[in-house]
């Protein structure tokens, strides 16, 4: 054992004792048993504990090997046989059992082990083995250097502030010859225990320095598989995260492209609004001013047939000017009154007689009539229609 493991051994032992003293092991054992009972027999056999305990016991000078929980022996041999024969008998009894799952416990006769029930303080529950060593001289006729011992906590009730434990003691000069004989025969045991019914009591009197150190390839394989599973989980999470980031980046690119298109649409909408405003303005201006054809048509209807026009103008401000000849030019003002398109008609300058035609030459100015508000609204509604422009004939 390395120095690091030796330094961690007390800490690990403390954790192990604390775990065993808690109610969690019993709960998980019950829960696991209930779950396993629901499985088919074949699945239960596949999921059963791999460690198969075999019990070795000396009876009347012969060694008997049986499986834990069964009373019939699997093998029996004499202690006088040579080591090779004994190992062959043991190997024959172990056929069909995985070498990694083979566990061998040496059962001592009941008279070889001293058992005492002690009442210890609850505070000593985490250090039962150490406290039992201190109490060895007082509770037994031996000291700690003369025996191998084990301590287990009992479920029986105890006084307040105390716990009931059982101390099991075997003399070294009793156990050491048995272990030496088995070691000489090439047989290694994993625990030293006492028989109980068809099984074992569940304690271990084997000295820690003589405990077998087994290599467990299956455990290493399981640990490697567990590490591979954890690695695959992290890889799967990393792949999922990478896919999410890629999808997010793609969505951000699409959002940026849509934002650019939205800006273009906003620019086009503003341009359309500006164009619509300009078109409405032109339509409003068109609706507010009289057309050249409309003014000429009204003048044609109101002027007598004996009068004609020589010149006609209509500027952007609605100012009308027209020049012509008429037999009686002064009467033209009365004819133009009430015109829907001409307002404030007046003569500009004096009326002169034309010797060539015998008629009166005149020049009049007027203002084009502005339409009513409803006519202006109608002009705004017709903003998309082309405007009629006037020209000087």
UniProtKB/TrEMBL annotation:
Pfam families membership: PilN (PF05137)
Transmembrane segments: 221-241
Species per Swiss-Prot/TrEMBL record: Dyella agri
Protein name: PilN domain-containing protein
Domain of life: Bacteria
Residue span of region Disordered: 366-393
SUPFAM superfamilies reported for this sequence: Actin-like ATPase domain (SSF53067)
InterPro entries recorded: ATPase_NBD (IPR043129), Extracell_DNA_Util/SecSys_Comp (IPR052534), PilN (IPR007813)
Keywords: Membrane, Transmembrane, Transmembrane helix
């Amino acid at each position: 054992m390395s120095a690091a493991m030796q330094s961690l051994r007390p800490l690990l032992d403390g954790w192990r004792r604390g775990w065993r003293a808690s109610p969690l092991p019993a709960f998980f054992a019950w829960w696991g048993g209930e779950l396993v009972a629901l499985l088919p027999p074949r699945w239960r056999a596949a999921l059963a504990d791999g460690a198969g305990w075999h019990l070795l016991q000396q009876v009347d000078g012969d060694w008997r090997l049986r499986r834990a929980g069964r009373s019939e022996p699997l093998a029996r041999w004499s202690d006088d046989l040579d080591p090779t024969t004994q190992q062959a008998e043991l190997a024959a009894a172990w056929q069909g059992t995985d070498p990694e799952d083979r566990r061998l416990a040496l059962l001592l006769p009941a008279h070889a082990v001293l058992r005492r029930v002690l009442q210890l303080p609850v505070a000593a529950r985490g250090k039962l083995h150490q406290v039992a060593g201190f109490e060895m001289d007082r509770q037994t006729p031996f000291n700690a250097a003369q025996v191998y011992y084990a301590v287990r906590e009992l479920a029986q009730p105890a006084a307040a502030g105390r716990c009931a434990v059982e101390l099991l003691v075997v003399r070294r000069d009793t156990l050491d010859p048995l272990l030496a004989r088995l070691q000489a025969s090439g047989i290694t045991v994993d625990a030293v225990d006492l028989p109980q019914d068809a099984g074992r009591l569940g304690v271990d009197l084997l000295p820690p320095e003589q405990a077998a150190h087994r290599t467990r390839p299956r455990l290493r394989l399981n640990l490697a598989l567990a590490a591979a599973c954890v690695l695959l989980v992290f890889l799967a999470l990393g792949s999922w995260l990478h896919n999410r980031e890629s999808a997010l980046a793609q969505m951000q690119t699409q959002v940026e492209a849509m934002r650019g298109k939205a800006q273009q649409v906003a620019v086009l909408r503003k341009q359309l609004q500006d164009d619509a405003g300009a078109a409405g303005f032109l339509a409003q201006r068109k609706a507010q001013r009289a057309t050249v054809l409309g003014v000429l048509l009204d003048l044609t209807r109101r002027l007598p047939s004996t009068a004609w026009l020589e010149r006609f103008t209509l500027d952007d401000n609605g100012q009308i000017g027209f020049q012509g000849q008429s037999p009686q030019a002064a009467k033209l003002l009365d004819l133009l009154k009430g015109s829907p398109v001409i307002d404030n008609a007046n003569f500009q300058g004096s009326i002169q007689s034309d010797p060539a035609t015998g008629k009166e030459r005149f020049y009049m100015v007027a203002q084009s009539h502005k339409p009513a508000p409803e006519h202006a609204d109608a002009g705004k509604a017709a903003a998309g229609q082309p405007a009629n422009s006037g020209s000087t004939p």
